[in-house]
Amino acid sequence: MKTRKPFDLRKGLFAWNVALAVFSAFGFLRVFSELSDVLSGQNGFHRSICVRDMLNVSTGFWNLALSIFGSSGSFAVQIEPIIRYSSSFNLLVHTFMYIYFALSAIDYKPSRQSAMCLTTLQILQFVIVLGTYGYAIGVKC
């Protein structure tokens, strides 16, 4: 084993991360377009939390697919309107994360600021989703 040359997995890792970035980007575009339509309507924020009138099979698919990335599966299976926020922001952040990982796989060194920006986006995502869940707990739908 000591004399054996290690496998070069960089091309495979690059392709895998690019595929995940593309998947996340398409998912974000699909889910966020529905969320923005709801938010731009009457009583937008409250309606986006409490009413599931605009949720459809396509949006449900992306929300369910998102459950692969996290623990939001219980909301996705129930097709709760609140999943709009966690799935939108999660897919957006994952798009940037997978681009970062793809670049790292081909020995491109992203700047330290880009790593800090990704961490900040993840924290911001957590705060936004936590805020919407807090609102959903305190409001009558």
Automatic annotation (TrEMBL):
Name of the protein in question: Elongation of very long chain fatty acids protein
Pfam family, one: ELO
EC id: 2.3.1.199
A Gene Ontology biological process term: sphingolipid biosynthetic process
Biological source species: Folsomia candida
Lineage: Eukaryota, Metazoa, Ecdysozoa, Arthropoda, Hexapoda
Enzyme class: transferase
Keyword Transmembrane in record: yes
GO molecular function: fatty acid elongase activity
GO cellular component: endoplasmic reticulum membrane
Annotated transmembrane regions: 12-32, 82-103, 115-136
UniProt subcellular location: Membrane
Main localisation: membrane
Keywords of this entry: Fatty acid biosynthesis, Fatty acid metabolism, Lipid biosynthesis, Lipid metabolism, Membrane, Transferase, Transmembrane, Transmembrane helix
Known catalytic reactions: a very-long-chain acyl-CoA + malonyl-CoA + H(+) = a very-long-chain 3-oxoacyl-CoA + CO2 + CoA
